[in-house]
Amino acid sequence: MASADQDHSESESDFEYDSDEDSTDSQTPVKEPCKYYNKGFCKDGHACAYLHVCKYALRGNCRYGSSCKLNHNVGGKTTPKAVDPPSSAPKLTDGRYYQWQLDDGSGWKDIENDHVIEAQYSLPHTKSIKIYNTSYGAVCMDFNRMKVYGKKLRVRRLDDGSTVWIWYCTLGRKWTKYESKDAKGNSAVSSSDIETNFQSDPTGSFTFTMSSDTYTILFNEMRQVGPQRKRKVTRRPLYRKAQSGVIPAQPTPELQNLSLNSKPVWQFEGDNGKWFIFKNRQSGTPTNCSVNSEDIERNYQQNSNGSMQFTVNGTSYKLDFGAMIQTNLTNRKKRKVRRVLQ
What pTM did the predictor assign? Predict the structure, then answer.
């Protein structure tokens, strides 16, 4: 059983241990490694005065050796890296579109039925997923930081090198896809434009113009900066169903319990902070609801960024899938909703 948290908390990048993102080293000869580079990215990039090199490699005790994502060239700043370039050359799968894996210190192991994880990861508003019934207990994966909460586990997503990445920004509390044309047909910027620049320099920026205004996307902050305000941005894969004919490696017993024979369930947050499932109630009861979880899921499948209306005891409500918010159309009170897998 798994649950997916789908709110709009901060998306700021932290240490994504298994990404292929590295910063290009500068020319300043120093002996101290850059702590920010070792945590995942350094905002100073080319201008950084510290070594962009694995601090453990400097000590001679990096346990990842040649598979480490960080630079092991101790001469560092004046020579090319001995590791793969950024995400333009991802860690490749065994033939599948993607592979989600966990490492408890004894090596990377496949997660069975990881298409459920991938499906949630492809949604821009899903920030994490929690998987139950494993030998590790409940495993909560943070998609934005690519890490596991509260356990000595690492998570990574392998790629076949053909993933189409979609870029989104927040607009009116919804995640909106970057398109080559805006709603009025004017030229804008597409996800592929942003991705091309991101692949060239994952710690850099991309500037574009729309309706005579200039905007900049800061990749290391995952923010869009405009003339009047900043907006959060995120990057998620276009979901591809698992292909037939590719037999994955047999998962270890620890991860076999991650079989996710589950279905989506829709819940709303009550006044006490507890979550309740949408259910049809008998007419005349205080919580008489015109829809249930299955009804909501059918509407969601038709348009995951759309909305729907329903009534509770005669009062009309609007459920916004993009914002994951339920609004009372009479008093305008809002509640969080979420879609979990059980």
Answer: 0.53
